[in-house]
Structure formats: C-alpha cells, structure tokens
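Dear H.,

Thanks for agreeing to be a second pair of eyes. The structure we're designing against is below in token form, covering all 124 positions.
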C-alpha cells in the first residue's frame, strides 16, 4: 500500500529522471496535494518553497513532465518520477535539458586542500 512518509514540513523529496534515457533531470519537493494532482492528472506537480504554492512543472514553458512511472523507496520517504518531457524537451528553467548541468571537479592545491571547481557540461 502506498503510504508516503512526508517530513515534518509536510514535504517529500522527488527525484525526476527521463523515462527513456535514464538521465537525471531535476529534484523538487512535493506535498500531499502535489502527489495527488500528479497521480490524478498524469503530469508532475510540485510544491515550490520559494513561491509557497503548488506548481505544475511546465505550466508556463510548455515543458510539461508527463508521468510514465512513479516509484517510492523502501521507507516511502522519497519519490522517483520517471517522465517524458514535452515541449522543447528541457526540464530546467535555465533552458538546460537537466538541472544537473554543472560539474564540480575536485582539485587538490599545493597545500593539500581539496577544492571544488565548477564547470559546465557542453550542450548537446
């Protein structure tokens, strides 16, 4: 039986990946209403903490996330949405296909300190 375990803030983390390629697209939060709307409509809905409201991903851009499958982990405290991205096929509000387009490479300095150096993946 599906019994999502929401945190004390009423939210559950949702990991979103492309159902065909397996690419990681984004991470977002869902509350009970967002989970219900996602299941009922077949399109991903999230809770936006910055705007404090339900948000249908792609409602403005047209890059809707059509649900192919929803999974939950053994503790039911994380959701995994496998989706098809409609519209231009991008999931990130920046126009990138995935929100995870930045690479942090670890470099060790002469004094032995490890630093993370940001880089951007090439488009395409």
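And this is the sequence the design step returned. I haven't edited it by hand at all.
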């Amino acid at each position: 039986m599906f019994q999502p375990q929401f945190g004390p803030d009423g939210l559950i983390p949702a990991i979103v990946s492309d159902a065909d390629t397996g690419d990681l697209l984004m991470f977002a939060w869902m509350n009970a209403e967002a989970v219900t709307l996602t299941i009922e409509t077949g399109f991903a809905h999230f809770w936006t903490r910055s705007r404090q409201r339900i948000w249908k991903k792609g409602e403005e851009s047209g890059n809707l996330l059509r649900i192919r499958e929803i999974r939950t982990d053994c503790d039911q405290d994380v959701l995994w949405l496998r989706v098809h991205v409609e519209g231009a096929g991008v999931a990130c509000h920046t126009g990138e296909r995935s929100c995870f387009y930045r690479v942090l490479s670890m470099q060790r300095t002469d004094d032995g300190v490890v630093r993370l150096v940001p880089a951007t993946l090439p488009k395409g």
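Two observations from my side: The chain has a mean pLDDT of 93. The longest strand covers residues 65-72.

Warmly,
E.
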